[in-house]
Amino acid sequence: MTSALALRPLRVTLMLAAVSVGAAGCTARPEITDEPPPSATLSSAAPREAPANAVWIPGGRFMMGSENAHASAAERPKHLVHVDGFFLRTHAVTNAEFRAFVEATGYVTVAERDVDADQILSQLPPGTPAPPAELLVPGSLVFAPNRHVAGLDDWSQWWRWLPGASWRHPDGPVSTIDGKDDHPVVHVAWEDAVAYATWAGGRLPTEAEWEFAARGGPAEAEYAWGDAPLDPDRPQAHIYEGAFPTHAAGTRAVGSLSPNGYGLYDMAGNVWEWTNDWFAPDTYALDQARGVARNPVGPDGPDRRPGAMAARVLRGGSFLCSDSYCRGYRVSARSPAAPDSGASHIGFRIVVTTGTGGRPSP
Fold first, then answer.
1. Torsion angle, alpha carbons of 66, 68, 70, 74, to 10
2. DSSP category for residue 358
3. How far from 284 is each of 63, 65, 281, 293, 334, CA to CA, in Å?
4. What's the structural domain count of the chain?
5. What is the CATH classification number for the domain harbouring 204?
6. How many angstroms separate the CA atoms of 74 and 109, rounded?
7. How far is the C-alpha of 173 from the C-alpha of 117, rounded, in Å?
8. In whole angstroms, what separates CA 89 from the centre of its chain?
9. Cα–Cα distance between 166 and 170 in angstroms, integer?
10. Distance between CA 314 and CA 278 in Å, rounded?
11. How does residue 43 score in pLDDT terms, banded at 50, 70 and 90?
């Protein structure tokens, strides 16, 4: 596993629970106002009928982030944000929907492309040995259960680089997505998600849009369903059950559980979801210092601190979140991920921007 991680350093930063804390990174550039800090208020009516499989998120002001006991430093401080209204897909993009895109365009995902050794080495410190030839093949990261982990600090104990893993073969080359048309597509890198969104008449949500929508209306709820804790007997989110990471787990069909207050499914658990924003650990502190951030879009580029990884923000947690390890299913949880990375628990949903809502869903 170590050699595979060295092979693709930007593809293997896993987006689980912890994020790095450090000095100032890139500067976020939202529009700033001096409005007083009200509780969340709805700002607009839908401009037209909602596109297929999308709902209108009316926008408003809310306290973004969290300062509770489970919040990471990158979720702090809570700060006032305003987002305008937008149409958001009710569910993560499914295998069937992504297949329609691939069949229409011939698109090849990052995980399916040939590996360029020179490009990989250009991302590593000078003098780094070339990776073994057997690793210079298309593939992706796959969850590998392990009953004998030595603590939960080293995620390489339960992840492995698997040649042939892709959205078509989520558990490796012999696996398929037969019978899983309504499951969220996985093993998609950020650029794969952007390519689909563009084709479908949309874009990825900003981090602020995602969090506002995930809250479902209540301004400061901890979860997509409110403030009640997860009920193991009637779970409100699809996360890991039992002792992590001892047994296999995977996605479930979108919409299997109840939606939040806006009618959005799986804003907690199932798969992590790409947002459009670059990640920097100090984004919220910079926003708070300026006042009320209106439609923030995150930093204007990747984190430039020495040793920092260029990363986009993932939201929502996944089927691998567990209260013993990862509480990424909280609405405020943020996780950095390399934009050229995919894994078996990463998907996405889109904001619909065209009048027709893009291509029809299968």
1. 30
2. S
3. 11, 8, 8, 10, 11
4. 1
5. 3.90.1580.10
6. 30
7. 22
8. 15
9. 5
10. 10
11. low
